[in-house]
Amino acid sequence: MRSIKTKIIFSILCVVISALSIYEVNNYRNIQKQLYADLNDAADRQIKRLADGLVFPLWEIDEEWQKKIITIEMLLPQTFAITITDEDSSVIRGKMRNASWQMIDVDRNIEGHFIERQNDIFHNDEKIGSVHVYITPEFVEKQLHDEVLNHLFSLVYLSLAIISSLGIILNSLVITPLRKILVSIDAITHGDYSGNLEVTQSDEIGVLAVGVIEMNHAIQERQQTILQSKNDYRLLNENLELRVNERTQAFEEKNNALQVLSEELEKIKNQAEAANRAKTVFLANMSHELRTPMNAVLGFSQLMQKDKLLTIVQRENLNIINKSGQHLLELINDILDMAKIEAGRVVIENTNFDLDELLHSTIEMMRERAEIRNLVLFLESSSDFPHYIHADEFKLRQILLNIISNAIKYSKKGSVTIHLTTENLSVCDQCLLVFRIEDTGLGIAEDDLPLIFDKFIQVGSESDQKGTGLGLPITKEYIELMGGNISVTSVLNQGSCFTFTLPVTRISSVDVPQVSTHNEVKVLELAAGQPNYRVLIVEDQLENRLLLRNILTQVGFDVYEVENGQEAIDAFLTLQPDFIWMDRRMPVMDGIEATRQIRALPNGDKVKIVAVTASVFLAQRQEFLDVGVDDIVNKPYRDSDIFSCMEKYLGVRFIYENTENFLPVEKKAENDDILKKLPLELVNNLREAAISLDIENCLSLIEQVKNFDDDLAQQLATSVNQLNFKTLIDLLKH
Ligand code: ADP
What we know:
By secondary structure, this protein is α/β, with parallel strands linked by helices. It has helices at 4-53, 55-60, 63-74, 106-109, 138-189, 204-305, 312-342, 355-372, 393-409, 471-481, 542-555, 565-575, 591-600, 618-627, 639-650, 665-677, 680-691, 695-706, 710-721, 725-733; strands at 79-86, 92-96, 102-103, 115-123, 126-135, 351-354, 376-381, 388-391, 415-424, 430-439, 485-491, 495-506, 523-526, 534-538, 558-562, 579-583, 608-613, 631-634, 654-656.
């Protein structure tokens, strides 16, 4: 890299040389012009002198004189040749440089570039000849050449002088201060900030030096700051490390504490789970232990009621036993239901069923209670209320029973009305059932309204409280599980209105399994002409065994009894029974294991096995179904449950009490046809009257039936007179 100095010198030199060159060229021209002008002047003077000097030599034709004059003139260095011509211009003679006097052939001998002068020579106005001077510019050229050389040398000297002086000036003014600055910058670059750069000038270099010094200070400060930060950072790091260590230690301590806590929690959780399991086992046991004796109490009291030899007092006492038993069972069921809800064991079991039948049988069940309290039960149903639906039948029945029984329980006068309406949902076949149960009873205080769905809460005066306070919480849970909701409005001492909705699917009658119509009808005995069915009872509890034996032997079955599962297997092998009633919990071998083993024996798949269990838990019921029982009957059971189950699985036929009151199947079909001809309004009114047990209204409506079919009217009137409203309702339902 060429230094600045060289560059500056070179640049200045170029400028100087160019300027001088221009000046020199100009000067050269001027000199040249001057020299040529001088030469021309000299030529003019010389020709004049010659013309004057040669007049007489020519006139005298004195050649020697002529020669002499010319030779003298030839001494002038610029003169190349001088020729003389006579007046007739015939002879040209003269002298050329370095040659002697001679005749000259101008064209041949004088060649080149000359300044020429010619002058005629007169003597007394007579031309006597002419003189011609040839001046060579050689001399001028040489002079010019010398001049150029001189100037060139001066140029070189001048340049050298300029270079050296410029070099010195630049060195002291620019280069040395710059070098100092550079050295300082270099030192800074290499981390040496101690440099003591001095500012000696106030020009740009001085400004630069000040900049460098400031930069040095700035870097030094920055360095200081960085160093300080590094120090701080190191301190912070050390601090942080210390804190991290402290925290880690604290964390480890906390972790250890947490671990201990977690272990304790795990222990507590295990204990809680064990307690929960224990609760579940306890519930299962309670369910079994409470419901099993209830089965015997209710079963035997019902059996005894059939005894025709009972005195009136005994019958009344039995009634009390039965009612109290039923009430106790309801309370047990409530507590078990709540426990099941709390254990999250309640599942929705949807089936296809006859909603109409459910509603009427439920109302029928409630009617007696209502009548005892002098209350009237009304049912108001909209025409589009579905007849058959897909939903959880058991839970809906329980919901209705809870709300209607409350309405009756907490009303002293007036009526309980059940309004049934629907709202269609956007999904096809889906509809929202709206149930509104209105009573004219005690009502609920406004403050108590939000509490009534809380568990174990009973509101109102203590004398009015009946039950466990679980009915409504269970009802609410069931409704919400089924996708609906419940609300209540009430005015104290005027009545309450419970409204609940349920989304359900409408179905058609063909989708509903037909239920035996003999359900509630007393079985008298086995119909004749049937095989001798052998029935085995497997039950460890004496009372329950006796109860079931009594129910079965009363109608004529051959009954065998064993006390545990092992005995059941032995009895199956020797007796080959047609039907087995299998208890679940028994000593030696339980009912589930016994069923599994019997099903694995030859002919074990043919025998009908129905489990009898007091368990409310689905899982325990499922266990039975998994080993292959045909069905499960719940304890406590009614006679009718036992008989309809045998009717279903064994095909056994019974003779029923008051069979004549029930229409034979063929007659029923015939009546169905006639009923179709009756106006719908009449049928509905008659049915409403029957449901409301309104004898007078029924009979007056039957009068209208006479207009269509006398026979049918007669049959309907007989049913009303015998107070057999169920037959009437069943018939009209179709
Ligand atoms: P209980 O077993 O006491 O009837 P429920 O949960 O069924 O328990 O009802 C809770 C409380 O709500 C009852 O104790 C009663 O005070 C009040 N209640 C429920 N239904 C009615 C009603 N129809 N009229 C007045 N009060 C009612």
